[in-house]
């Protein structure tokens, strides 16, 4: 950098943004979504609108015109802006956002979001598996008629939330807080429903940790079918019969589809799991629509609530062979799940500011912004 040249912080931030989200990624997303109409009659090109939208999120405290001035100035330096174009107004940005639609930035996110941990990143690995966590959070959106109809409010009557709320469930990399996939829905859409849309994206080299609120027999089967390893906390009332106790104090159990209620059928599945665990079930396997063999790791966490009592935690895992992961490794991996809650807090509270409501007054623009 030459002597006397002053670089503003917003230029640095926008430079990082364009490095992280290159023009090629935006163009591919625009083309894939059919939003690439050329500029005419003063309309903003789709790639400029995409960067403007990201800039509005990056500079959450600035108004539309201030952000537009910052972004278009930087885009001009990077060859993405025609000097003959005028800086758009707030209404112009809104109209351009409506033309862009909600799918382009979702496609951009799919292209650029991903794991970033290296083999040396602390808390990001359990042996050969990359640690991921799944969790959800709510986002306040402006109280407009369209947003209320699309997203709804939390609660009802006198205890209804002040603003409509969008719900987000995301997969994040433990150790880095990097979001790798996300689904967005109305406040009435449950976290489990959104999570079910994410499980098929898991890979065989990944290990997903999840709290007990995400467990269901169908969710377990959907996630396990990808070949990814799972370490989930068991719900308190879940029946996990002991099939065989290992030398390390963990034990094998079987998750049986709750739709199967006949005592004889359930006993037969338990016996089949026992034969498999003992190595006497050669050629035999459990129908994944009916049952799953799992390993259970139980341990106490003393005085977590500060009231002098401990808490028993039971983990379910697809890693049934203790040689592939010790009990203490699995417990440590599960507690890395808290890293996603920390990441959510950074996103909602520290990066954007506490209690901040999204800008967008139209549902399609809310999806863009999220």
Summarize this structure briefly.
The protein is of the alpha+beta class. The chain has 13 helices and ten strands.
Structure description:
- This protein is an alpha+beta fold.
- It has 3 domains: 9-112, no CATH class; 114-211 and 337-370, no CATH class; 229-324, no CATH class.
- It is built from 13 helices and 10 strands.
- The protein has helices at residues 9-20, 23-32, 46-58, 64-77, 90-100, 103-112, 145-151, 191-198, 217-224, 263-277, 327-335, 338-351, 363-369; strands at residues 125-126, 129-140, 165-173, 179-186, 206-210, 229-233, 244-245, 251-256, 291-301, 311-317.
- Strands 1, 2, 3, 4, 5, 6, 7, 8, 9 and 10 form a 10-stranded mixed sheet that branches.
- The radius of gyration is 25 Å and the shape is elongated.
- It starts with 8 loop residues before the first helix and ends with a helix.
- The mean pLDDT is 86.
How many domain regions? 3
Low-confidence stretches: none
Count of DSSP E strands?
Answer: 10
Structural class: alpha+beta
- Beta-strand percentage range: 15-25%
Helical stretch count?
13
Biggest sheet layout: 10 strands, mixed
The run of helices and strands is HHHHHHEEHEEHEHEEEHEEHHH
Radius of gyration: 25 Å
What is the overall pLDDT average?
86
- Helical proportion, percent range: 25-40%
Determine the N-to-C terminus distance.
Answer: 35 Å
């Amino acid at each position: 950098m030459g002597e006397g040249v002053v670089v503003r912080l917003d230029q640095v931030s926008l430079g990082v943004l364009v490095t992280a989200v290159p023009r090629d990624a935006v163009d591919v997303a625009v083309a894939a979504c059919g939003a690439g109409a050329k500029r005419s009659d003063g309309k903003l090109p789709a790639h400029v609108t995409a960067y403007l939208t990201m800039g509005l999120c990056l500079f959450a405290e600035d108004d539309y015109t201030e952000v537009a001035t910052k972004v278009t100035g930087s885009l001009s330096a990077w060859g993405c802006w025609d000097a003959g174009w005028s800086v758009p107004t707030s209404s112009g940005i809104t109209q351009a956002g409506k033309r862009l639609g909600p799918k382009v930035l979702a496609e951009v996110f799919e292209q650029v979001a991903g794991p970033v941990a290296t083999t040396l990143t602390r808390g990001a690995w359990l042996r050969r598996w990359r640690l991921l966590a799944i969790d959800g959070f709510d986002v306040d959106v402006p109280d407009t008629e369209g947003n209320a109809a699309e997203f709804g409010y939390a609660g009802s009557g006198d205890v209804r939330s002040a603003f409509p709320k969008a719900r987000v469930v995301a997969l994040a990399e433990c150790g880095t807080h990097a979001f790798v996939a996300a689904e967005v829905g109305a406040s009435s859409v449950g976290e489990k429903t959104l999570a079910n849309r994410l499980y098929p994206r898991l890979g065989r080299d990944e290990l997903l940790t999840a709290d007990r609120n995400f467990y269901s027999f169908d969710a377990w089967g959907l996630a396990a079918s990808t070949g990814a390893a799972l370490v989930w906390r068991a719900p308190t009332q879940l029946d996990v019969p002991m099939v065989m106790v290992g030398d390390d104090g963990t034990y094998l159990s079987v998750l049986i589809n709750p739709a199967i209620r006949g005592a004889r059928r359930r006993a037969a599945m338990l016996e089949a799991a026992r034969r498999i665990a003992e190595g006497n079930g050669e050629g035999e396997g459990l129908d994944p629509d009916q049952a799953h063999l799992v390993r259970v790791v139980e341990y106490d966490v003393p005085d977590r609530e500060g009231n002098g009592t401990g808490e028993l935690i039971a983990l379910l895992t697809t890693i049934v062979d203790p040689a592939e992961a010790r009990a203490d490794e699995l417990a440590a991996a599960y507690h890395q799940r808290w890293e996603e809650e920390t990441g959510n807090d950074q996103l909602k509270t520290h990066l954007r500011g506490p209690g901040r409501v999204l800008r967008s007054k139209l549902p399609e623009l809310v999806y863009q912004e999220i």
